[in-house]
Specification:
With 379 residues, the chain is an alpha/beta fold. The chain contains twelve helices and 14 strands. A hairpin with a 3-residue loop joins β13 and β14.
Length: 379
């Protein structure tokens, strides 16, 4: 029997702090008019000091599980798409797995720049279609405000923080993720990068002094690259899915720049009502931009059952990707009963207690082993 990977849950989280163009104009040489004209961005969200990629990913994941009325203990895999993990290791996905109480799930991070979520969606869907797994949680989350040089007007005006998630589930009903096209051109890796912090340039006083822990970007070349690959990847994904261009119900591109989205829409001859844009309110949230846009499109009643959606990403690597999805869930989703909300909260609290007990148990065991070794040694 054929298997399909349907999107059955979705959720997003954005920080409450809003940073407007006028706010930026008070700290760098820029203006609201300059930013709007070149990017289409009006404001962006900035993570609070205690918010991280993991905490935002957890909130988005919980929202997606709530929509699907899904039990996290039945998750098979969690993929966090991010360029700004909490740590180089462990994977942010492992932190999410622990917080959700997803005791049976594997977990890993996927890094492909701003394309990461679409890459992860392709990987997760193939895990299901192949028969390996039944439920895969895919999250895109970023705290780009932590790696932006707030004195560089060419980059600091672009980025924002946030997270979005979808739950993929195996289904016998035709639809879901119909095709995926992934691409890369590593010769352009230097066009958008975070130079320091890896094995080539480990963190040091020198790398910090040179500002190598901030995003560096050749904006003009990235613009040219993105306008070329967005429409091309879309056409390739549609061809693989055997879906005609005119059958697209909604085009959701990575929200990097309004002019890039307009250029792609013009090339594909898509009318404005078939193109979703929300970067004016969130800026470029990298791997979080596509899932956040999807969630808002659903909230705005722009997605209906049997609609064909195209989701496209492009970014550092250089990388690009596109997926075609036939929507299979009736909308709107009914609100869950009150008791399920209470039970779900209790389950997450138990996950936190369980995690604490596991850590405490390890410390106690380590102390007992140390005591045993010392006593034997002294004897």
């Amino acid at each position: 029997m054929a298997r399909y990977a349907q999107i059955v849950g979705w959720g997003m989280y954005v920080p409450s702090e809003i940073l407007t163009n006028d706010d930026l104009a008070s700290v760098v040489d820029t203006s609201d008019d300059w930013i709007r004209a070149r990017t289409g961005i009006v404001e962006r969200r900035i993570a609070a000091p205690k918010e991280t990629t993991a905490t935002m990913a957890i909130r988005a994941a919980q929202a997606a599980l709530r929509v699907a009325n899904a039990n996290p203990t039945r998750l098979d895999l969690i993929i966090v798409a991010t360029a700004t993990p909490d740590y180089p290791f462990p994977a942010t996905a492992c932190l999410v797995q622990d917080a959700l109480g997803a005791t049976k799930a594997g977990a890993f991070d996927l890094s492909a720049g701003c394309t990461s979520f679409v890459y992860a969606l392709a990987v997760g869907s193939q895990m299901i279609i192949s028969g390996a797994y039944d439920q895969v949680l895919v999250i895109g989350a970023e705290t780009l405000s932590r790696i932006v040089n707030w004195t560089d007007r060419n980059t600091c005006v672009l980025f924002g923080d946030g997270a979005g998630a979808v739950l993929l589930q195996a289904s016998a009903v035709p639809g879901g993720v119909l095709s995926a096209v992934l691409g890369a051109d590593g010769s352009g890796g230097d066009l958008l990068m975070l130079p320091a912090g890896g094995s080539r340039h480990p963190a040091s006083a020198e790398t910090v002094a040179q500002g190598l822990h901030y995003v560096q970007m050749n904006g003009r070349e990235i613009f040219r690259f993105a306008t070329r690959v967005t429409a091309r990847a879309t056409r390739q994904a549609l061809d693989e899915a055997d879906v005609n261009l005119e059958d697209i119900s909604l085009f959701i591109s990575h929200q990097a720049n309004g002019r890039i989205i307009q250029s792609a829409a013009k090339s594909l001859k898509l009318p404005p009502e078939k193109v979703f844009v929300n970067l004016d309110r969130y800026g470029n949230t990298s791997s979080a931009s596509v899932p956040i846009a999807l969630c808002e499109a659903i909230e705005q009643d722009r997605v209906k059952r049997d609609d064909h959606l195209v989701m496209v990403g492009f970014g550092a690597g250089l990388t690009w990707a596109a997926v075609v999805v036939k929507w299979g869930v009736p909308l709107p989703v009914p609100r869950p009963p009150r008791w399920t909300v209470v039970w779900r909260r209790a389950r997450y609290r138990w996950a936190a207690v369980r995690s604490y007990l596991h850590r405490l148990g390890r410390r106690i065991l380590s102390a007992l082993i140390g005591l045993f070794v010392r006593n034997n040694g002294s004897g």
